[in-house]
Structure formats: structure tokens, C-alpha cells
Amino acid sequence: MTPANPARLRKIVVLYALLMILCGIGYAKYDNYQLDGDAVSFMDIADAIHTHNWPVAINGYWNPAYAATLAVGQIVAHPSRWNELQTYFWVNFFIFVACIGASLYLVLSLLRVREKFVTDADSLPAFSQPALLLVSLGLLFLGFQRELAIGAVRADALLLFFFFIAAAFLLRLQSTGRFIYYPLLGLALGLAYLTKSFAFLPSGILLAALFVFGITRKGQRRTRIVSGILLAGVVFACIAGPYILAISKQRGRFTTGESARLNYAYFVDETGRWHEWHTGDLGHAKADFKHHEELIVNAPPVYSFARHPVGTYPLWFDPSYWTDTIKPQVYLHGHILRLKRTTVLLLRYLVGHLESFVILGTLLLLGCFIGRRRASWLPLAPVALWGLLMLGIYFPIDLQDRYLTPAFLFVAIPVLAMLRRPKNGYQGEIATGMALLFAGLVFATAASDLGDRRRTESVTGYPRGAYSKQIYPAAKGITGLGITPGSDIACFGDVACYVDHYWARIAGTPIRAEIEVPDGSDPGAFWKHVADKQAVVDALRARNIKAIVGSFETSEQVPEGWHQLGASNFYAYPL
Fold it and tell me: What letter would DSSP give residue 32?
């Protein structure tokens, strides 16, 4: 079998990265609308950063780095609320491009470690440098097609970028020992924390592990490593510390972020997600609420957010404010139930990501192997162990596919790099062929998907991919009723309040009150059975609410006083 031409393979890697970027441009133009309350909160914080409204930008639940990148998009493109989403898709595109560069840097760093430390006279790496780069790019591209979509306005892709860079700096420390990589490691970890508070724990554990490793060395090496890690810690503290101090001052107690506390309460203690103080649905958690929403009508429950009127929907914009005193309690049965659930979620994720397992299993069956000696795989293990640590932090509480992507890539890529083949065997050519085939299939899938999205947009007549036939007509209908931007409104029911309240942001009408539908049923049907509608209307009018907006199920009978907003399922009751 003729060996593959390394120079040609390197050109293919460059070409493939360019094709990924070309597909990224396609997704920035044609990816579909997929927003939720997380996205709207990031947009609201981006507004606050853009206008230097720092008290609002400081948020115990959402860290600011991703919102800051959205703010850069605002500064560059000057979008209106009606077309800002397309700008944010382009921001995500540039994050995607950055992740491509970071992944290449990570794999090249991994290869330098393999070349320097992994020696075995009887075997060779199964994947050559270009082949490993190619299969890694394919895995990354799949991650963006599945979990880290350009149309998803979330922080996960930016977090992956900083984690990639941090892992690459760690590997460069292994291969070169250059002191400059210590502060760079601290910088990358600090920026990862500013992207998502989750990063604080794996970053702290990594730095602590490196410190312990350093103090167990001897002579000048110990001094160099310990001083380097201390410097990395100082840089990390300088980046993360000011924000930790800011949110701690805001909350009145030390905290590195409130998401872990609330997620434990929600997923383990079984605390109700909304209006816990009124419903008493605390599960096994405890609380003595200091600043909850104001209940202005009891039946049906009508809440005012006037005590903390920030963001498009204050309850989602800063849940750590409204739930400030919730104290999670260790609940063994809740942990068992949650572990069962996360195990199922992990298995589903792995079943949906069999490509790397197929590649690995095929090569193992053909005679490849993980090095028999510890020295042939241990130098490549730190990144994989860091990925497993991330999985271990998420696993007991909550798993979502987008959370698993960094951990999966950090395990899969080093394991493929560890794979060895007999020195005189043919497995290397097969591995290269599999890398080419895998990368090609991933690209073909993306190209076909983009073609389908483009055809769908042509048929539906949407102005762009970043469009919803429910949300945008609803926002336009609000302005058509004479409700001007800046007017306060009330949301009504789960769809309008929780599922997607981007309509309120587009219209510039912040939600300052909510009518809850306790059983989650259709608000239109629910309204017909409200005994004292006038009490609800009067209470909202007294707080200068201009309209109630809800999403009704299709019905021939629309309740009296409600106006359909465009051709959407949203209806408004002007006050």
C-alpha cells in the first residue's frame, strides 16, 4: 500500500478548514431561529455593557464575556432590534472561526508532546499529524452542527474556545517548558470563567493539580514550576477577581456565581423553577426570601417585577436576585434520581456521537492499540483527564448536550492521538483514509443541510434565517396597537413568558408583570374562566402596564378584548 503524501494531506487540512469557514458563513446566513430566555438575557447584558450600565451588566447568574462579544457586534454593525439577531449570528460565526484556529493549535500542541515524550521502537502513531488534524476538525464541525449551532445565542462555543486555548498552553508547557505559558494559561482560564461561572471549578482544580505536581519535583524544576503556577494563579485572580468581588458585593456575600446553587436546588432538591416564594414549592431546599416578586392579584396569580425592573423579563434576566436566599440541602434520594437521569442523558449523547468510537474500534480491530507502556500514553493523558473532570462536575447535577461537547472533544482527540500501530503495518494508511472519509462525510452533511435551509427560506419567504414567523409578527403587532417602545407590558402563560419572550425585546416593551397560568394550559381558555377579570386589569393599570400579551392555541373563539398580533398565535389585551 502506497503511503499517503504528507504535503498533500497538509494542504487538504488547510482546504478543509477553509471549507468549514465557508459552511460557517452559510450557517450565519441560513441557520434557523432557536432562541430562549438565556439568549435574551445575554442580549440585555450586551446592551448594558454597550451603554456602560455596569450595575445591570453585573449579574450573578450570567457571566459577561459572551455578552461583551455581542456588544462588540452591536458597536460594529449598529443593528436595530428588528435585525440584531442576524448580527449575533455573525458574532457566533467569528467565534466558530476562532474555535477552528484554537482546535488546530490544541492538536498541534498535542502532537508536539507526542513527538517529544512518546517513544516506542516497535510502533508508530496510528494517525499522522495531518490525519489527526483532519479528524479533530471533523469532530469539532459535528459539534457545531449539533450542539453549538451558530443560530444558538449562547456562551458555550466561546467557553470551548478558551478551554481549547488553555489546554494548548498546558501542552506547550509540557513540550517546551517556556515560562510565558504559565501566565497565558492563567489568562485563558480567567477568560473562561468570565464566559461561564462553571469554569471556575475545573480551572481551580487544574491549577491546584499543577501546583501539587510542582512541589513534588526536585531542585530548580520545582522552583520554576511552583513559581510559574503561582503566577498563573495571580493572572487568573486578576482576571476573575474583580467580577467575583462585584457579584459578591451585589449579593451581599462571597460567591463566584449563583448558577451552581440554583441548579442544585432545581435538579436535586426538586425546587420549583418559578415563583417559589408564593407557591411554596421549595422541594427539599430552604429559603427566607428577601426580595421576591410582588403578588398583586391572588386568583389568578398576577406578579409585578417593579421591585427589580431590569432586562426584558426580570425573572429570567437575573434569577439569582429573586431566589437570593434559596439554600440547597443535601438530598440523597434526589441525587439518586438525578444520577439515573444524567446517566440516561450521557448514554443518549454517546449513542448520538458514535463516529469517533467507530473509528477507534475499527482501528483496534485492525491491529492498532493503545501503547502497552505507560510512557506511550501518559504524556497525552492530562487533557483527557481534564475533560473527564468537566464531565464529573456536570454529571451529578445536570447534563445538556452542549455542556458535554468540550469534555467529549478533550477525551476523544487525545485518545485518537494515543493510538499506535505496528511499525511495518498498513494501519496508518487506513487511519488516514478513515480521517479523510470521516471529514468528507461531515462536510457533505453540512453542505446538504445548508442547501435544505436555503430552499426552505426561499419557499417560506423569510427575510433571513434569523427569523421566526411567530415572534417577529407578534412584536410588529404590538407596535401596530400603538404601544410605543419603552412601555411596560405583562406576559401571560408559559409560551409568552418562559418559552420565548424575545417578542418583547424586539418591540422594546419590557415585561414588568406576569399573569401565571398555574397548570400551564392555554392562556386563551384560562382567561375565559377568570372570575374577576376586572381586578386583574385594574391591578395592572395601576402599575402603568400598557397591555397583556399571551400565546393562545388555535381557536375560532378569541376572548373578548384580545387582538391577534399579525398572523401569529400571540394576542394582546390593551390596557
Answer: P
Is the separation of the CB atoms in 165 and 192 below 8 Å?
no
Local structure of residue 531 (DSSP, 8 states): S
Please measure the distance between the N-terminal and C-terminal CA atoms of the chain and give it in whole angstroms.
Answer: 79
Reading the block at residue 454, the C-alpha cell is: 436555503
With respect to residue 310, please indicate whether it lies within any of the assigned structural domains: yes
Crossing angle of helices 401-418 and 156-176, rounded to 10°: 30
- Count of structural domains within the chain: 3
Whether residues 20 and 146 fall in one domain: yes
Residues 306-353 pLDDT 10s:
999 999 999 999 998 998 888 999 999 989 999 999 999 999 999 999
Task: Examine residue 152 and state whether it is found in any structural domain, yes or no.
Answer: yes
Identify the domain containing residue 212 by its residue range.
177-247
| Of the candidates 394, 356, 391, 403, the residue with the CA atom closest to the CA atom of residue 147 | 403
408: its cell numbers = 467529549
* Nearest alpha carbon to residue 533 among 507, 563, 568, 562: 562
Q: Give residue-wise pLDDT tens across range 372-408.
A: 777 778 888 999 999 999 999 999 999 999 999 999 9
Residues 366, 403 within the same domain: yes
Please indicate, yes or no, whether the overall pTM of this predicted structure exceeds 0.85: yes
SS3 168: helix
Q: Which three cell numbers stand for residue 326?
A: 434559596
